[in-house]
Amino acid sequence: MNQTTPDLSDIYHNDWVANYLPKSWGPYARLARLDRPVGTWLTLLPCIAALIQADHGMPNWWRLIVFSIGALLMRSAGSTINDIWDRDFDKHVERTRFRPLTSGQISLKKAVIFLIVQFALSALLLFFINPYSRWLALALVPLVIIYPLCKRFTYWPQAVLGAAFNWGMLMAWTDTINSLPLGAVLMWLGAVTWQIGYDTLYAYTDIQDDAKLGLRSTARKFGDKGLYWLSGFYAASIILWLVAGILMPMEIGYYPAIALVAIHLYWQLKSFDLNKPEKSHALFKANIHTGLLLILAAILGCIQF
C-alpha cells in the first residue's frame, strides 16, 4: 500500500516564475500570486458576469479592461496583506511553508513597500470609474485589510473573504447604470455563499495545521459535517441567483445555464472527501468552471430567443 503523503505546498519550484523571471522578481511575483492565478479568475469571472447583466449585453470594452486590471491588482494586494499578517503562521502550515515572506526570500520591509505600490496602482483606476463606484471601491479596502486577521477571532473568515472577493460585482452595476438594484445585490449574495462553500473546500486542506496553530475557519467549524454545510451554501447560491434572474429580469436562456451551475456544484459535493485534502484543493480550483458558467448564464440571459 502506498503510504506517501501528498505534498500540499502551493509553491512549485520549477514553474515559469523560477524559469523565466529574474531571480530578484520571483518573490514579488509569488507574493502577488501571479504564479497561482486561480484566485484572480475567481474574482474576475463573477464580475464579468455582472458587467454583462448590468449592460444587458456585452459590456463596454474599456470598462471590461478596467475591471479586469482591478481584479488582478486587488487580489494581488490582498494576497500580499495576507502573507504579511500570516508570516509567522505560514511556516507551520504544509501548504504555505515555502511562501516568500515566511521562507525568508523577501523582507517584511520590502513586502510592505510592494503593498504600497499595489495600492497606488489600484488607486489610479479610480479615475476611470464613476463617483458611486469610487466610494464602493474605498469601502472595499478595510475588508481586504482585515480578512487575514479574521481567522484569529471568528470561524467565519470565509464570509469576509466572500464579500471582498465579489465586491466588483456591485461596482460593475454602479459603474454601468449608476444604481444598485435588488437583483444585483442578490447575485452578489449568491456569490458570497458560493465562495463560503468553495473556500471551505480550500480550508479543509489546512484543517489539521490550523487546529495546531489555533486558527479558525469554516472547515474547523463544520468539521465532519462539512458536506451538509457545503450543500446548504451551494443551494443558497442557486436560489439567490434564480431569484436575481427573475428580478432583473433575465431572458429564458439564463435558467438552463444556472441549472448547469447547479449540476457542477452537485458534482463537487459528490466528489468531496474529508480524508483527501489534496482533492479538496482540486475541487476549489474547479470553481473556475462555475465562474465560466455564470458568464454563460449572463450571456444567455441577455438574448431573446
UniProtKB/TrEMBL annotation:
<keyword id="KW-0997">Cell inner membrane</keyword>
<feature type="transmembrane region" description="Helical">
    <location>
        <begin position="111"/>
        <end position="129"/>
    </location>
</feature>
<keyword id="KW-0831">Ubiquinone biosynthesis</keyword>
<dbReference type="GO" id="GO:0005886">
    <property type="term" value="C:plasma membrane"/>
</dbReference>
<feature type="transmembrane region" description="Helical">
    <location>
        <begin position="281"/>
        <end position="300"/>
    </location>
</feature>
<keyword id="KW-0472">Membrane</keyword>
<feature type="transmembrane region" description="Helical">
    <location>
        <begin position="135"/>
        <end position="150"/>
    </location>
</feature>
<keyword id="KW-1003">Cell membrane</keyword>
<dbReference type="InterPro" id="IPR030470">
    <property type="entry name" value="UbiA_prenylTrfase_CS"/>
</dbReference>
<dbReference type="InterPro" id="IPR044878">
    <property type="entry name" value="UbiA_sf"/>
</dbReference>
<dbReference type="GO" id="GO:0006744">
    <property type="term" value="P:ubiquinone biosynthetic process"/>
</dbReference>
<keyword id="KW-0812">Transmembrane</keyword>
<dbReference type="InterPro" id="IPR000537">
    <property type="entry name" value="UbiA_prenyltransferase"/>
</dbReference>
<dbReference type="InterPro" id="IPR039653">
    <property type="entry name" value="Prenyltransferase"/>
</dbReference>
<feature type="transmembrane region" description="Helical">
    <location>
        <begin position="226"/>
        <end position="246"/>
    </location>
</feature>
<comment type="function">
    <text>Catalyzes the prenylation of para-hydroxybenzoate (PHB) with an all-trans polyprenyl group. Mediates the second step in the final reaction sequence of ubiquinone-8 (UQ-8) biosynthesis, which is the condensation of the polyisoprenoid side chain with PHB, generating the first membrane-bound Q intermediate 3-octaprenyl-4-hydroxybenzoate.</text>
</comment>
<comment type="similarity">
    <text>Belongs to the UbiA prenyltransferase family.</text>
</comment>
<feature type="transmembrane region" description="Helical">
    <location>
        <begin position="185"/>
        <end position="205"/>
    </location>
</feature>
<dbReference type="InterPro" id="IPR006370">
    <property type="entry name" value="HB_polyprenyltransferase-like"/>
</dbReference>
<comment type="pathway">
    <text>Cofactor biosynthesis; ubiquinone biosynthesis.</text>
</comment>
<keyword id="KW-0808">Transferase</keyword>
<keyword id="KW-0460">Magnesium</keyword>
<dbReference type="Pfam" id="PF01040">
    <property type="entry name" value="UbiA"/>
</dbReference>
<keyword id="KW-1133">Transmembrane helix</keyword>
<dbReference type="GO" id="GO:0008412">
    <property type="term" value="F:4-hydroxybenzoate polyprenyltransferase activity"/>
</dbReference>
<protein>
    <recommendedName>
        <fullName>4-hydroxybenzoate octaprenyltransferase</fullName>
        <ecNumber>2.5.1.39</ecNumber>
    </recommendedName>
</protein>
<feature type="transmembrane region" description="Helical">
    <location>
        <begin position="252"/>
        <end position="269"/>
    </location>
</feature>
